[in-house]
Amino acid sequence: xxxxxxRLFLLYWPWLLIGLILSxxxxxxxxxxxxKPYPYRIIAVGKASTQGxxxxxxxxxxxxxxxxxxxxxxxxxxxxxxxxxxRQIAIVYQAIxxxxxxxxxxxxxxxxxxxxxxxxxxxxxxxxxxxxxxxxGEKSPQQSFVATNNVLAGQQLGELVIQRVRPGARILxxxxxxxxxxxxxxxxxxxxxIQDDYEVLPTLDTGGQLSDAIYYQVSQALADHPDVEVIxxxxxxxxxxxxxxxxxxxxxxxxxxxxxxSSEELINYLEEGLLSAVVIQRPFNMGYLSVARTIDLLNxxxxxxxxxxxxxxxxxxxxxxxxxxxLLFPFED
Length: 333
Fold this sequence. Notes:
alpha/beta, Rossmann fold, six-stranded parallel β-sheet, 11 helices, 17% strand
């Protein structure tokens, strides 16, 4: 009996071996068609904490949604606020030391973050920018950039001014920084629209401070320039701080305020008329797409150098339209 089994084995084993080889080859061909997790680790370095800042909270939530969908790890880190450029640089170098697959970066300073980003690329780490790009033109180490078209968004702010205020009025532009790429773009867009027909004061650079500090800075500016008729703000907390300053100076209804981004506080100001209008971004989409494009790069896919996530004007009259509700309250059912 054993001799018969051995003879059968010797007769058929070449065919069994061929079958096993064919099965292995077939499995290899079909495997790419199956959904596989992407075991990548990504460190995202934002400009500011997600605590109390709606914009960065939304960006981080968009990143988390993409991380869950694509089964990757995304670790969000940041300074407390936008005044801490040195701290952000240190965070990037710490991230490089941890050797992630990729770093997603929102540069507080378009010039000073170039070298840390170059160091990341030299270490074999993929670098994708979100919200704010790097300087250095064609030599920039960034591999893709996901953000609002900030020049266009600034032009939208400028259009809001000319729709609401007489030519020749004195205007104060309030920015959290004059060094960030996104903010430079917004200011460029605003000034392209209003510069010739209005008296525009030098930009008030608030040094990346949060709303409480901005309140005092704008209050002083209003005291120094009592003939200011318009304040144009370039992010969430300059808008909030300026609104508080206008109210504190008893200038509600006398100084027109247009701003950027959204939060529950800003929506309340819109409803009561203290804030005339805001240009809002799509930060959740921005965070999500920054992770998705990073994964594309890690998987060897071609990506575009820039992805525009868009911006939209919100006023008291259109706050509660269906589409705008989704943008203003993305985490509510």
